[in-house]
Amino acid sequence: MTQRKRIVAGNWKMNGNLSLIETFSSTIQPKEFPGVEIVVFPPFPLLSNVAAKGLKTGSQTVSEHDAGAYTGEVEAKLVAELGGEYCLVGHSERRTLFKESNEVLVAKFAKAQEAGLTPVLCVGETESEREAGLTEEVISVQLNAVINQLGVASLENSVVAYEPVWAIGTGKTATPEQAQQVHKFIRELIAQSDASLAAKLPLLYGGSVNDENCDLLFAQPDIDGGLIGGASLKPEAFKRICESAVGNV
Ligand code: 13P
Description:
Layout: E1 6-11, H1 18-27, E2 36-41, H2 47-52, E3 56-59, H3 76-81, E4 86-89, H4 92-97, H5 102-114, E5 118-123, H6 127-131, H7 135-150, E6 159-162, H8 176-191, H9 195-200, E7 203-206, H10 214-218, E8 225-228, H11 235-248
Parallel strand pairs: 1-2, 1-8, 2-3, 3-4, 4-5, 5-6, 6-7, 7-8
Helix pairs in contact: 5-7, 7-8
The structure holds 1,3-dihydroxyacetonephosphate.
1,3-dihydroxyacetonephosphate binds next to strand 8.
């Protein structure tokens, strides 16, 4: 048994609506999953509706700015006011489709924490980076961006999610061994700066997790839960994944 927090989070991306919140909240009752924190990352406008159902929630990104003339952006403090407790930072879709650099992501990470949100820092390599043997280097750069700018202590109130880009939405999950190897690397890298923080930090795996492959992934010693995309839109499958975390993580 690990003493780390276990988390199963659903990233709805640009999906979901009021009706999904109804089916989701009637299927998933958080008290049925003792010891597992269940978090939903819906599109921004649904945040307070998810929170009103008694589910933990958070945003999929947040602005790196304080409130002001930034049309279309959402301030971290507003996410907190609407009942958000978490915030994804650096999801690969934000990095690639919205060209978010490590520098911008560090600013978002800091704004999230200032507002009292727990940032979930997403890291991961592309297929070509893996094939070129660059996985550890890419992840080190992504993690060190935060550690070097904000200090290792900033990871105290955070979560790290390893999401290999090649496994996101492709049905090509990392094998439990591949995922464990990278999670161990992440924990060791952080331990070089602060061993006790590294031992407590929840590390989530994401990338084509479903109700069939979750058991073996969650059984790995350095995997403390999952960040689930497609399967989080199917309440029954997501429920099964939450059940798996109760027994396995
Ligand atoms: P899938 O589970 O659909 O592969 O998405 C993973 C993800 O991007 C979660 O943030």
